[in-house]
Amino acid sequence: MSKHQLGYIVFGLFTLIYVFGYLNLGWSLSYFIWGFVAWFLLILYGSFFIQTNYHLKALTKVKTNKKVVAITFDDGPSSYTKEVLDLLEKYNAKASFFCVGKNVAQEPELLKLIIEKGHLVGNHTYSHSKDIGFSWTKTVKAEIEKTDEAIEKYSGVKPAYFRPPFGVTNPRIARALNKTKHKVIGWNVRSLDTLIHDESKIYNRIIRQIHPGSIILLHDTSERSVKVLERLLIYLDSNNYRSVTVEGLLKETT
Ligand code: NI
Which helix (H) or strand (E) segment is 82 a member of? Predict the structure, then answer.
C-alpha cells in the first residue's frame, strides 16, 4: 500500500468521525474543511517531492558508510553531453543519464557513446511534457514505452530505471510504472542547475548536501552545468569520493 492509499483511508475515517460529530455533537463545518485542506496539501507535497515516496517507492539515496555517490543527468542527450562524457572520463567517474526519448531519436550517436563509456541510461519519458502530471495512465505508459523502444533501437539496451519529469508523481504515474516495471530513481541532492544562474551558488548548494550514498541531480543540457560538473568532480576527487552509476550505488549498500 502506498502512503497515498493510506492517506485515503485516514481521510475516509476522518470523514466518518466528522459526520458522527456533526450529527450528534454539533461540530462546525470548518473542522471538515480544515481536514480536507490538510489532506489536499499533503497530496500536493507528496506529488511534487519525490523523496516523500508518497505515491510510489523511489530510490533517492543509499545507506552506506563508503564515500560513494551517484551523479545523474536528466533531459539529454544534447549538444553538451559530449563535454559531460569527456569530463567524466578525465576524472574516472561513472554516471547515469536519464534520457528523453525524442532527444535520443535526434542524437542516437551520443546515446551509444554514453553506453560505450560505461555509464547507465535510464528512461525520462519521450516528450518530457509539462502536462505529465495531468496525463492519463495510458499516455504515461506510452511515453515510457516509446522511450524504451528508442533507447533499445539505438543501443540494444532496455532501460530498467525511470525518472519522472520534474520528479512529479501521482496515482496515474504509479499505475503506469506498475505495468512497465521500471525501478524509479529520484535524488536527495537537487542542484537546481536549470534555475540558478550563478555557477558557484549551484556548486556550493551541491557540496553542502553531499553525503555517502547521495544521488545528485544535474542536467547535461547547458554549459553552466558542464562547468559545475568539473568543479564537482574535482571536489569529489580531492575528498576521496567515488562517483558510480545508480546501479553501482545499489551495490554499495551497507
Ligand atoms: Ni527532466
Answer: helix 81-90
